[in-house]
Amino acid sequence: MKTKRTNYFISLITLIAALGGFLFGFDMAVVSGIIEPLKMQFNLSSAQEGLFVSCALLGCIVGVAFSGYLSDKIGRKKVLFISAVLFVISAIGFAFSEAYSTLILFRVLAGMGVGVASNVSPLYISEVAPSHKRGQLVVFYQLAITVGVLAAYISNFFIKKYAITH
């Protein structure tokens, strides 16, 4: 009974931590579906378009650079929570941005969330997993990235379909 409960708990923790991978894949791929409407709405030049797409990677670099230090200082769970907060703030910020510069700010914050999650999520999963299941459970993080990319492309399809009909 205790082993079954422990396995369930570890599986649940793995799925929750793997959400960082899902958000990683989704955030990096969804830009392909929003860039055209964004270019039209904000009248972006090619350079501005390139900056918008690439600034998330700059945020990733910052997120990765600080995530290891922070996870050692305050713990993996707290750092994963910080990553989640960065994702939520960036999503809300995107929804209400009316200027290109604020879009860039929130794209960098989203990138920071991705950077933190890409480092700490698999680390946390490997730490809570029993040694004989560690490889199996960390694979869920990689799978979540792929599912996130797929979800982004599916949502892009529906956004495009909606934009054409309205």
Task: Compile the SSE list and pairings.
Elements: H1 2-42, H2 46-74, H3 76-96, H4 100-128, H5 134-165
Q: How would you sum up this structure, described in words?
A:
This protein has about 170 residues and is mainly α. Helices cover about 90% and strands about 0% of the residues. It has helices at about 1-40, 45-75, 75-95, 100-130, 135-165. Helix 2 (about 45-75) runs antiparallel to helix 3 (about 75-95). The chain is globular and about 60 Å long.
Q: What's the number of helices?
A: 5
Mean pLDDT: 91
User: Termini distance?
Assistant: 55 Å
Main β sheet profile: none
> Which structural class best describes the helix and strand composition?
mainly alpha
The total strand number stands at 0
Keywords:
mainly alpha, single chain, 5 helices, 166 residues, globular
Short synopsis of the structure:
The protein is mainly alpha-helical and 166 residues long.
